Amino acid sequence: MTLDVRIGLRLGSLDLRVELTAHPGEVVALLGPNGAGKSTVLRCLGGLAPIDDGRIAIDDVVVDDPADGTFVEPEDRPVGFVFQDYVLFDHLTVLENVAYGMRARGVAKGDSRRRAREWLERFDLADYSMQRPGVLSGGQAQRVALARALATNPRLLLLDEPLAALDAGTRAVVRRDLRQHLATFDGMRLVVTHDPIDAYALADRVVVLEAGRIVQTGTLAEVTAHPRTRYVADLVGVNLVTGDVLDGVLTTSTGARVVIADAVDGPALATIRPHSVLVARGSAAASSARNTWRGTIVDVDRLGERVRLVIDGELPLTAEITAAAFDELNFRPGDDVHASVKATDIEVAPT
Amino acid sequence: MRKQRPQRSRRAALPLPALILAGVAVAFFALPLVGLLWRAPWSNAWTYLTDDAALTALRLSLVTSLCATAISIVFGVPLAWLLARVAFPGRGAVRALCLLSMVLPPVVGGVALFFALGRRGLVGQYLDEWFGITLPFTTAGVVVAQTFVAMPFLVVTVEAALRQLDPRLEEASRTLGASRWYTFRRVTLPAIRPALTAGAVLAWARALGEFGATITFAGNFPGTTQTMPLAVYLSLETNPEEAIVLALVMIAISFAVLVGLRDRWFGSIGRPQQVVA
Q1: What is the strand order of the sheet A27-31 is part of?
Q2: Which residue of A has its CA nearest to B184?
């Protein structure tokens, strides 16, 4: 009972070669830059883009295999698809949107409406059932799209950039809601995103896609600690620190204190980019950096002209410095260092 | 002083020459109507209107133009869909062929129809031989001629709307378990409804006004093929006063439909960019 995918597809300038698997109950995030082929992978799974070669099996049922001519139409696949900016049907009410899939599958009108109403209640949208989708906020539209997809009872749920259409202010709240709603679904879930924070909040495992190829898979912590390519290092290889904010200080579960500039009290997720981390031997000289933590270098990763230092200590961190600085300071695993970060270099999002 | 300034600059933003040219254009469209109203024999109007010949022509025009519109919808929507969505070799040529009658002189279209569907025509001879169907000089022939010139208006309008439609709406429908046909009925058709209405009105107006192809292919027989435009043209020679009254009736019908539809369908939806003609 798994998702087993091997995709070969040429589409314009994109040459997609992807193999991946997912298990029930698992949320996999497909991360990558624009044009990497993330959305195309979802389209292949949903039956919206036939593959050139390879094989796609959902729950041991082959839905696409060009070798023996198998192709299951989108409507016959056990797949729910949540599109980027949701693509709700404007000419139908919210209730009819959610009932649409059941109606299309032949469920009687009254029955489908009753079940759609239950879905809307579960998603806290009952008040909007008779409204048109046009009046909904981004977060509400996303919940309708999710309810509409889940109402068809899929085994595999595909979400294409579910948070990209939202403004920064509502993103955190919607992300938390989405995480809760995804948790109630026991099938396989695949989320396409370009934002590591989304991946961190929603997924158990990340698959990083670049120019049609998978460059790295693993838990986000693994990928963050040892990014294998420049892109992964820049985008995914960030330090994510969770904790509670009080009076401009975020305190982690292990008791480390992080001074931040944007003080929003409550649980929060801080992002510290490795190149913002200053590493010094011995005690740090007085500087404008508001944060300094002691630690020990446990690992060194050379990535072209940059070197990533994995530092364990009061606050485990990955720092990135130039190869020249690395050679000059002669850092080695086991060295005691001070890592410091300016409060203004730390991005904070409430969770 | 300050409050007046934006108003003044807004007025200055409308260039005077453009304003004058636009005014001339409005006059150009209004004057013929005024001319008709000026020469209309108001005292005898009712007599001409209730004249049997006039009523027959009017009824024939309405029936044939509505039939032509219905046929245009039934065949034109699938054609528009084919042109908009299916990339096949020679699509451009097929589109040009199907829209040719929009730019063709209608008389030429009528001649072409005659050699294709006439009793001795390419297809017409078999229609006659096998099914005993003759189209020329019949009411059915009028409908064929009207459909020939009217359908392209519906096709271009609906095709433009289909091209503008977000294809993901249809994809979303498919992933929710809807077949292609269910998707077309429940998602595509409602989404293009304003354009379909606009296209149908344009096609209907074109069919109602059709003259050249009709008189060439179907002739001018009162009661069977003499539609309003034919009646107006012929009475212009015999009885100009009647021609004016009939012309005013046609203008009134067309004007009423355009105004009525605008408010009911185009107005409420308010997407003028879909009304492409």
Answers
A1: A70-71, A61-65, A53-58, A3-11, A14-22, A213-218, A205-210, A27-31, A188-193, A156-160, A79-82
A2: A104
CB pairs under 8 A between A and B: 61
Closest Cα in chain B, distance from residue A106 (Å): 9
Is the Cβ pair A104, B186 closer than 8 Å? yes
Q: Measured on CA atoms in the order A328, A333, A339, A341, is the torsion positive or negative? A: positive
Interface test with chain B among A45, A100, A115, by most B beta carbons within 10 Å: A100
A227 touches chain B (CB under 8 A): no
Judging contacts by C-beta atoms under 8 Å, the chain A residues touching residue B166 are 87
What is the structure's pLDDT at B2? 45
- What pLDDT, on a 0 to 100 scale, did the predictor assign at position B264? 52
Is the pLDDT at B11 greater than 70, yes or no?
no
How far apart are alpha carbons A140 and B234 in whole angstroms?
A: 64
Kindly state the tokens that stand for B78.
């699938």
Closest partner residue to A46 (CB to CB) among B169, B175, B178 is B175
What is the rounded distance in angstroms from the CA atom of residue B247 to the CA atom of residue B230?
11
Contact A174, A138 (CB under 8 A): yes
CB contact B176 to A (< 8 Å):
yes
Chain segment B74-93, per-residue pLDDT in tens: 999 999 999 998 889 999 99
Three-state secondary structure call for residue A181: helix
Give the span between the Cα atoms of B190 and B168, in whole angstroms: 15
Chain-centre distance of CA B166, in angstroms?
Answer: 27
B171–A80: do the CB atoms touch at under 8 Å?
Answer: no
pLDDT-derived band at A207, boundaries 50, 70, 90 = very high
3-state SS of B225-251 is CCCHHHHHHHHHHHCHHHHHHHHHHHH
Q: What is the mean pLDDT of residues A92-96?
A: 95
Nearest chain B residue to A99 by CA distance is B176
- Whether residue A83 and residue B172 make contact (CB cut-off 8 A), yes or no, is yes
Residue of B176, B183, B189 to mutate for A, most A C-beta atoms under 10 A? B176
Helix (H) or strand (E) holding A113: helix A109-122
Full-model pTM: 0.76
Rounded Cα distance, A315 and A298, in Å: 13
Q: Provide the H-helix boundaries in chain B.
A: 4-13, 16-39, 45-49, 52-85, 91-103, 106-117, 124-126, 139-164, 167-175, 180-183, 189-209, 212-217, 228-238, 240-261, 268-269
pLDDT-based confidence at residue B267 (cuts at 50, 70, 90): very low
Q: Which of B169, B179, B190 sits opposite A87 (nearest CB)?
A: B169
- Please check whether residue A46 touches B, CB under 8 A: yes
* ipTM score above 0.90: no
Residue A190 bridge partners (DSSP): A28, A158
Spatial CA neighbour of A272 closest among A344, A323, A216? A344
